[in-house]
Amino acid sequence: MSKAYLLVLAVLMSISLLLGGCAAPPAENVTAEADAVTSAPVEVATDEPTAEPTEEPVEEPTEEPTPEPTEKPTEEPAAELTAEEALTANFSAFFANMTGFNAIMPNAIYQQIVDGNAPFLLDVRSAEEIEETGYIEGAVNIPLRELVQNIDKLPSPDTPIVVYCGVGMRSAIGAIALAALGYTDVKVMQGGGFGGWVEAGLPVVEGLPEDAPVLNAFEPEPAAVEAVTAMLATLPPGWAQVKAEDLNAEIADGAEIVFLDVRSAEEVAENGYIEGSVHIPLNELIERRADWPPPDANIVAYCGVGYRGNLAMSILRAYGYQNVRNLSGGLPSWQEAGFPVVTQ
User: Within 10 Å of residue 157's Cβ, how many Cβ atoms?
Assistant: First the structure.
């Protein structure tokens, strides 16, 4: 055989082998495989123990942090007034409400009581005087010099108050003391004070009034309290009143007196004035403080009868003036004593 023939034969045999490997398997082999599959034990699905569902962890509600309360800005406490500021404000309010220089007669007071409109009656006499002469029913007794120590027994600052004493001198001082503290509706019983009440035949209660109840109705400015305390404590014996004869004797001895005339311009024009007087009507006294004599001057205030002069004297003393007095009886007492007056 030639080599070519052998080569062809080898190729054909290789192809035959390849084709034989790809042929279907013998039937018996297929059946055996099928039997093997059908005879294989079938696993029955058993219930696997079901895992109990685990609850998702619930987050406990956390409280929202409470915002810190923001403090409201507190108002700064009002600055305390100076004595001058407190007195000027209080006296200005007092004069703004003043009618007839806040004088009231005994019969008018009694009528208010009868009508059921009784004011707060303040008796500034001593206990000894009251025991001797009696008092007006319903009155509260606080001696003049003890007024500041008994503010807790006084009513609210807008309460109508009538102050009275034996003749009307101390009651005028007391009214100014109350006005300096901040009371705006204070009247003074004139017409002879309690003596005028008795002379008018009005009812009087014997003995001493009961102790006044504590009201705690008003707390004045501390500076005003201090000023009034000093004013009342420094009042000389006789309540800073001077008679015309005594005053003229002082002048004769060389005393330099500054007269403060607190009457109206019409009164001055009609009745004259004491030479050298500084003229400031009472109702202008606070607004014209720049015109006051200097604090170290020897001052005597006067008016038509003595009442307004007493009010003016008390006002100056509240501002710290030490050497100021009132001409008892006013200009008429000066004239009656025969002392000179300048007429226009």
Answer: 20
